[in-house]
Amino acid sequence: MKDLLNGWGITAAVFLPLVGALVMLAIPKSEETLHKVVALVTSLAVFVVGVALLWDFNYDHTAVLQYAQDKSWIELINARYFVAIDGISLPLIALTMLVVPLVIIYSWDHFPEPHNPKAFLLLILVLETGMIGTFVAQDLLLFFVFFELVLLPMYFMIGVWGGEQRKYASLKFFLYAAFGSALMIVSILAVYFLSPTVGGQHTFSIPALADWGGAGLAKSTALLIFAGFFMGFGIKVPMFPFHTWLPDAHTQAPTQGSVILAAVLLKLGTYGFVRIAIPILPVGAKSWAPIIGLLAVIGIIYGALGCLAQTDMKRLIAFSSVAHMGYVMLGIATLTPFGTNAAIFGMVAHGLITGMLFFLAGSVKDRFHTLEIKRLGGLLLQAPRMGWLLGFSVMASLGLPGLAGFWGEFPAILSAYDPAEGLNTELFRVFMVVAAIGTVFAAVHLLWLLQRVAFGTPTEEFEDEHIHDMHLTDYIAWTPMVVLIVVLGIFPGLIFKVTNQAVVHSLSAFVS
């Protein structure tokens, strides 16, 4: 199987969604059921390839790039089609391959207006290609192409199928991302031209550039180049103060768009820090780390306090994402294997938990036609299964031990106690205390949401209405996420064992 997967495995995983999208283009718009089947079968085919990759992956050597394909792409500039998987990318690829078919299953009976399943599902498949491609790319230019590929499908998903303020939200999302990408491509070109040549040519190879590690660069140059990466990735995370596009995008996006955005798209930014910015420019990373840590803890507190001011359920969950991604960035800012391992776990945990919360918010909107918190109440009485799932997801999100959210927050906070050598230990310990206080605020706003929406009796507006509880598609789409939240909460080593070797290798400049 190894030879077979080495020959086509990653390429199949990346481009099968595009094949499915091309097939859908040839099918008339009126054949709605056929479009649903093609989209679902395509995403399940990608999932099967992913299971094969997971099964055959060598977990004894997770720092080694596996299933690599390195082919000439643009000879003139030595850009290559170089894709591979290691322990850092594997959990995020698996998360993507799981979430997409679950979103399509949920969509079966939940298409937003205007009703156009063909275009909607086609955009989801293009998104899948961009997301998986970003996580497997080992060439900077190829990474940038996939990184940007996700921008247009999400722009149209928000702008066409979003809420009343969809045009504003989609334009804001696009402009923020485009600004960050413009700075990032400048940094990519700077690294390309300032790094040593390989065989007489400059290179975009991420492993080769990581081995170089910015050696010979003036510190001021390394700081400026890192700043470009910081903006490109930080806006995508999004970090405070670049976060303002996220609440608008989540609030206006259809449920499926919010789930994909929360579960996977935000991780492209944090992954970029771990895969590219820090290994290639360790000197710049060390100088920027205190700023990243400071912005991370500001985001934790600001996001949590911002939740308390929200009247819309989806907007509240969106602000909680700002806080949760703050914990991920705090772990990354420590420049330690412990902190980075915690950050990667936090990416996966946040994807599952917040994805689940947005699924539930979308179902509440379907049934009550509102997400205004003061108009909701008594969900446990009218739709008890959804009410209990909301309670479960809230407990996971606030970091209850035994669920995945705990291992996304607690180790990230703990890692700030002992940052990498050369960083200001006292400063990072202050960050640790502030981040720990942030968990209290998180508990307050999440429990407040649960109390207002699920407890008590239905409001007068809805007390006489029959509210349908869960559909079959809800059970199918949500069960794997619930199971994984529990399993990863009890057995966190399932991810830590995969990521650790690769993380230590990527941070070799900071590990003695």
General description of the model:
This protein has helices at residues 2-25, 32-56, 90-107, 117-136, 140-149, 151-161, 166-194, 206-212, 219-236, 245-252, 255-280, 282-308, 313-333, 337-368, 379-382, 384-397, 404-415, 425-454, 472-490, 493-506; strands at residues 66-74, 79-85. By secondary structure, it is mainly alpha-helical. The two termini are 37 Å apart.
Give the proportion of residues in helices: over 70%
CA(first)-CA(last) distance: 37 Å
Order of helices and strands: HHEEHHHHHHHHHHHHHHHHHH
The number of distinct helices, counting runs of at least 4 residues, comes to 20
- Beta-strand share of residues: under 5%
**Within the largest sheet, what's the order of strands?**
1-2
**How much is the radius of gyration in Å?**
22 Å
Mean pLDDT: 90
Tally of DSSP β-strands: 2
What are the defining features of this structure?
single chain; 512 residues; mainly alpha; two-stranded antiparallel sheet; 2 strands; 3% strand; globular
Could you give the topology of this structure?
Elements: H1 2-25, H2 32-56, E1 66-74, E2 79-85, H3 90-107, H4 117-136, H5 140-149, H6 151-161, H7 166-194, H8 206-212, H9 219-236, H10 245-252, H11 255-280, H12 282-308, H13 313-333, H14 337-368, H15 379-382, H16 384-397, H17 404-415, H18 425-454, H19 472-490, H20 493-506
Antiparallel strand pairs: 1-2
Helix pairs in contact: 1-2, 1-4, 2-3, 2-4, 3-4, 3-11, 3-14, 3-19, 4-5, 4-6, 6-7, 7-9, 7-10, 8-11, 9-11, 9-12, 10-13, 11-12, 11-13, 11-14, 12-13, 12-18, 13-14, 13-17, 13-18, 14-16, 14-17, 14-19, 14-20, 16-18, 17-18, 17-19
